[in-house]
Structure formats: C-alpha cells, structure tokens
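Data deposition worksheet. Section B asks for the primary sequence of the deposited chain exactly as it was used as input, without tags or linkers unless they were present during the calculation. Section C holds the resulting structure in token form. Section D is free text for depositor observations; keep each observation to a single sentence. Incomplete worksheets are returned to the depositor.
Section A, Depositor: J.P.
Section B:
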Amino acid sequence: MRRLSGLVLLALMAIAPRAQADDRLNVVASFSILGDFVRNVGGDRVNVTTLVGSDSDAHVYEPTPADAKRIADTKLVIINGLGLESWLPRLVKSAGKAIIVTATSGIAPLKLGSGADPHAWQSVVNAKTYVTNIRDALIAADSADAEAFRANAQNYLAKLDALDREVREAVGKIPAAHRKVISTHRAFGYFAAAYGIEFVAPLGVSTESEPSARDVAGIITQIKQAKIPAIFLENISDPRLIQRIAADTGARIGGTLYSDSLTAEKGEAPTYIDMVRHNIKALTSALAD
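Section C:
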C-alpha cells in the first residue's frame, strides 16, 4: 500500500508542472522587442509567442498559416501599431477573436515621411508606456495574476528608469558639438528627440542599394560641411568605401546600431535593455573626443 501511495504521489508531482504550464496566459507579440517586454511583465504566468523573431524585420514580414493558428489559439495579441504591422489586419481577420492591444497607446507619434514613425521604443521613456500598457492588458486578461503582473512591471520599470538615466549620463559626457552622426538608419527619431543626438541621412543615398562612387564623394562632402564626427552606414558592404570615407573626413566608423529587432540569445542585443546599452556604447565610442 505504501509503495502504491508513493507511486501515486510521484505521478501527481509529474503532472503538476504540466498543469501549471497549461494554466499560463497565452500571449502573441508581433515582434521581438514587444516579446521581451511581455516576458518581463508576465514572468512565469505567461507563454509568449513572437511572430517576427530575432534578427528579423517586422516592416517587411510575410505572415504564415502557422501565424494564423498561433493567433487563433491565443487570448491576447500585443502589437506596436503606428503602421509597423501593416500585414497584421489580414492575419487577425482570418485567425479568430483574440483581443488586440496596441502597446503604443498614449504615445504622441513623431512623423516619418508621410506617416507616423513606428519606432517609439527607441525612447526609454516611451518604453515605459509600452510596459504599463502591457501590464494593464495582462491584468485585464488574467485578473487572478494581477499582483504578479504589477510586481513584475514595477521591477522592470525601475530598471528602465535606471537605463534612461544611464543613457542621459552617457550623452551628457559627449561635447554638444559632437552629438551628430550620419546614418542610413531611419529608426532613431525618438532616440534623437529624447537624448539630443542628431541622426543625419546621407544625401542622395538609398538604403536599398550600394552607393556609387559619386554617392560616396557626396557623403564625404556632406560630412565635411556639416562637421559630422561619426558614420553609421550599414548599407555600404565594401569596407574599403567606409575606410575611404573615414580617411577623407576624419569621421569615426561607428559600427552597428540595432533598431527594429533584438538579436538571438548569444548576440549583442538579446533583450531591450541590452539593445539600448549596446547602441549608446556604440554612439558614445564613436563620438568621443
């Protein structure tokens, strides 16, 4: 009898973790940065699926039938909004009745071209709004775990407060005249507005193709005239062109800035906080005296 009771107890113990896992709230996040926010707020009370994974671009994503099933099987979908996920309405329409929550709700959008700039997460202050919106959405979807969501959010918001101070202190050490870079990135408008580093687009250069020799000469002239101390031109794949620009202008080569996606776990920016720290380190290193 004792042996039988022991076997029953072991069986129950084996089942318990599975029951707890099945009891978690299923949440779909549209892309990797949102997925990281949800994991920090939801903790072990949520199962998070990210449609656009690490090292992938949400702007040009093509949904799959598997994505429709993921949304059909979930209760909550967290999206960025501001035009980032132009592919999402068709997917949601065909997938079911999940609650759609826009994480940028309450953020005043900047302009990018003729529309809204969707990259609001590039300001850490805005990231805090993302987190509070996600917290409130999780509580509404799973009130039984409200206290856990509040505690997790409070802890993460404190980390974001510290991160915001860290960025401001780092920028404060850069001479005001040096707070300017030339970059093919168009994702840093909110960062520029929040922290005072100007991102200047190279004139006449498309981010879709390799610049011609004439384009490079134009970049060199632009850097000299505007006295830009650093360059982040990631669409130029030939290192000799970058080296020529640096040699002819004295501008430093800045390296990689992460904008629309996190990296894989072993990459340079596997979390949002890692991404911001990597970017500010790259910028301050390039703009230092």
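Section D:
The mean pLDDT is 89.
The chain has ten helices and ten strands.
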